[in-house]
Task: inverse folding
C-alpha cells in the first residue's frame, strides 16, 4: 500500500489536510484540516510559514489542531509538500496542551468545600498552566536541569533583586550547600573550619541547623520569642566567642527575624549570614524582600511552601559571584568546571588546566575542587516552578489575607491564647498561623489539636520544637572533647513553643468557607469547654 507518512499534505477533493497518523495499516488516515483564514486568532490553530515545510515550499497556512478527521487513504491525493518534524511537533504539542487544559479543569479543579473534607495546612495550588508547562518540558525531553532551569534561576533572582539563584533538589539541600560553600578553600581566610561556631535558634526545622554539625562546626543556640517565633537578638552578644564565624537561621513561618539587629551584628563582627528563607518567599522587612539581606539565602519548593515544583529548592547568592561558583561546584559533584550540562569547554581551556597534582592538561570536566554532591532537580520541575513564580504575588496576598482572618477569629479568645505577632517593620508572607495556648487555659494544646484533627483540619507543630531535645541532637557525641553544640540561657521560649504552640494553614488554596469552618471549630471546642 502507498504510504502516507505523518506530516504529508494531502488533498481530499478541494480540501487540504496534514496527515497526523496512519491507522489500520495505512488504510485510514488521521488528518488535521488546513484552513485558509490566515488571520485566525483561535488558540486551536497553528500558523505555518514556509520554513515549516521540509519539501516543496507551500504557501503559509493555518492548521486547526482540533479539526481532525479519519479518512480512507484511498480518498486522499498526495501533494509534494511535507511538514518539518518541528512543525508537526507544534501541532501535536498544541493538541496535547489543549487536552491537558481539559484534563486539569475536569480532574483538578477545586471542589466546593464540605465540612468533613480535609482542610490541609498547605498544599500545591495550580491550574492547567503548571500541568502544560510540565508536559511541554517532558515533550522537550531535556530532563536534566537545562533551559527551563536556567530561566527559572534568572526569574527567581530577578524577583528577589539579587545576583544569582541556583536551583537544587530541596530546601534541605540548599541549606547544606549554602553552609558547605562557607567551608570552601576558595574563600581563603574567610573559610569556616571544623570547630567554628555558628549562631542559630533552637526552635525550627532541623535542616537549618544540621549542616553546621555535618561540616564539623558547632551550632550555638539562642532562644526565640514565642510570639514572633524568632531569635531573641539581645542574646547575640552573649552567644559570640572568638570562634563565632556565621549566623544561620530561618524567618520563622514567614515572619522575618530582626534583620536590622542581625545584619548589624554580622557586619560589626565580620560574620557570614545565611537566611533560611524556605518558609518566607515574598515576606518583606522594611519593604525589602527577606532572603536578600545576608550573604546567601535558601528556598524550598516542597508543596506547602510559597511556590512549589514538587521537590526542589534554591540557594540565593546575594552579591558575591565566587559563592555562586562554589555552590554550583558542590551541587554538581564538586567539579571545578562550570559548563552547563551537555556543554563542553565553556572556559575555552578545557585541556589547559593544571590543578592539584594532576598532570597538566587533565580534562577540566573531571577536576574536583570540592567534596561535592549531586543535587540538581529536573528541568521539568523548573518548568512548573516558572508558572508558580508568576502566581507568587497573588499567593502572597492570599496568605496575608488568610492569616489576618484567622488572627481576627482568634482575637476574642485571647484569654486562652497568646497570638502571633509580626516582627516590627515587617510584612510577612505567612506560612502558618501559630497561636500559643496560655498556661492557665482550661484545656491543653493536645486536646485542641485533637479536636481540630478529628474535624479533618490539619495542624502542625513548629517543626522540631526545641531541637536540642530531639533524639538526633541528644545522641550527638562530643567533638574533640568539646560539646557538639552550645546553648545560651535556658531556651524557655523554644520550650514554650515546643509545649504550647501549634499552627494552622493559611495557604492560598484555603477559601473563606475553609477559614469559617476552622474558626467555627475553634468556637465549638471552646464552647464545649464552658
Ligand atoms: C525553615 C525550613 N528550612 C528548610 C526546610 C527544608 O525544605 P525541604 O523540605 O525542601 O528539604 C523546611 C521544610 O519545610 C523549612 O521549613
Result:
Amino acid at each position: 500500500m502507498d504510504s502516507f507518512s505523518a506530516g504529508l499534505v494531502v488533498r481530499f477533493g478541494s480540501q487540504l489536510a496534514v496527515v497526523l497518523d496512519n491507522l489500520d495499516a495505512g488504510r485510514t488516515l488521521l488528518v488535521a484540516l488546513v484552513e485558509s483564514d490566515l488571520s485566525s486568532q483561535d488558540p486551536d490553530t497553528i500558523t505555518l510559514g514556509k520554513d515549516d515545510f521540509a519539501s516543496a515550499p507551500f504557501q503559509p497556512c493555518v492548521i486547526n489542531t482540533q479539526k481532525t478527521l479519519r479518512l480512507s487513504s484511498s480518498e486522499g491525493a498526495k501533494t509534494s509538500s511535507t511538514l518539518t518534524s518541528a512543525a508537526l511537533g507544534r501541532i501535536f504539542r498544541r493538541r496535547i496542551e489543549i487536552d491537558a487544559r481539559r484534563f486539569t479543569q475536569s480532574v483538578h479543579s477545586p471542589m466546593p468545600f464540605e465540612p468533613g473534607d480535609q482542610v490541609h495546612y498547605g498544599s500545591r495550588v495550580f491550574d492547567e498552566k503548571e500541568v502544560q508547562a510540565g508536559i511541554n518540558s517532558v515533550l522537550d525531553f531535556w530532563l536534566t536541569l537545562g533551559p527551563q532551569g536556567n530561566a527559572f534561576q534568572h526569574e527567581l533572582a530577578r524577583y528577589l533583586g539579587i545576583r544569582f539563584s541556583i536551583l537544587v533538589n530541596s530546601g534541605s539541600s540548599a541549606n547544606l550547600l549554602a553552609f558547605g560553600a562557607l567551608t570552601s578553600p576558595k574563600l581563603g581566610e574567610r573559610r569556616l573550619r571544623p570547630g567554628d561556631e555558628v549562631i542559630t535558634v533552637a526552635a525550627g526545622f532541623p535542616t537549618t541547623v544540621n549542616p553546621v554539625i555535618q561540616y564539623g562546626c558547632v551550632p550555638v543556640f539562642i532562644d526565640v520569642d514565642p510570639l514572633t517565633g524568632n531569635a531573641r537578638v539581645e542574646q547575640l552578644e552573649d552567644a559570640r566567642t572568638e570562634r563565632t564565624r556565621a549566623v544561620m537561621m530561618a524567618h520563622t513561618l514567614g515572619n522575618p527575624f530582626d534583620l536590622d539587629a542581625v545584619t548589624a551584628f554580622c557586619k560589626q563582627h565580620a560574620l557570614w549570614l545565611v537566611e533560611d528563607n524556605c518558609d518566607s518567599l515574598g515576606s518583606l522587612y522594611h519593604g525589602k524582600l527577606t532572603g536578600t539581606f545576608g550573604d546567601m539565602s535558601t528556598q524550598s519548593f516542597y508543596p506547602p511552601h510559597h511556590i512549589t515544583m514538587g521537590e526542589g529548592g534554591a540557594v540565593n547568592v546575594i552579591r558575591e559571584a565566587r559563592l555562586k561558583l562554589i555552590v554550583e561546584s558542590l551541587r554538581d559533584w564538586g567539579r571545578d568546571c562550570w559548563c552547563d550540562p551537555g556543554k563542553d569547554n565553556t572556559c575555552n581551556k578545557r585541556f589547559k588546566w593544571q590543578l592539584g597534582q594532576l598532570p597538566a592538561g587533565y580534562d577540566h570536566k573531571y577536576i574536583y575542587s570540592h567534596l561535592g554532591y549531586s543535587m540538581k532537580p529536573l528541568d521539568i520541575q523548573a518548568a512548573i516552578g516558572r508558572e508558580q513564580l508568576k502566581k507568587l504575588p497573588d499567593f502572597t496576598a492570599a496568605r496575608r489575607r488568610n492569616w489576618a482572618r484567622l488572627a481576627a477569629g482568634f482575637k476574642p479568645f485571647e484569654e486562652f491564647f497568646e497570638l502571633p505577632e509580626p516582627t516590627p517593620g515587617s510584612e510577612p508572607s505567612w506560612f502558618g498561623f501559630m497561636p500559643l495556648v496560655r498556661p492557665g487555659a482550661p484545656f491543653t494544646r493536645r486536646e485542641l489539636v485533637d479536636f481540630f484533627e478529628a474535624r479533618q483540619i490539619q495542624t502542625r507543630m513548629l517543626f522540631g520544637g526545641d531541637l536540642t531535645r530531639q533524639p538526633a541532637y541528644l545522641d550527638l557525641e562530643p567533638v574533640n572533647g568539646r560539646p557538639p553544640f552550645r546553648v545560651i540561657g535556658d531556651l524557655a521560649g523554644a520550650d514554650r513553643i515546643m509545649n504550647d504552640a501549634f499552627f494552622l494553614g493559611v495557604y492560598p488554596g484555603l477559601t473563606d468557607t475553609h477559614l469559617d469552618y476552622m474558626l467555627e471549630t475553634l468556637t465549638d471546642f471552646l464552647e464545649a469547654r464552658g
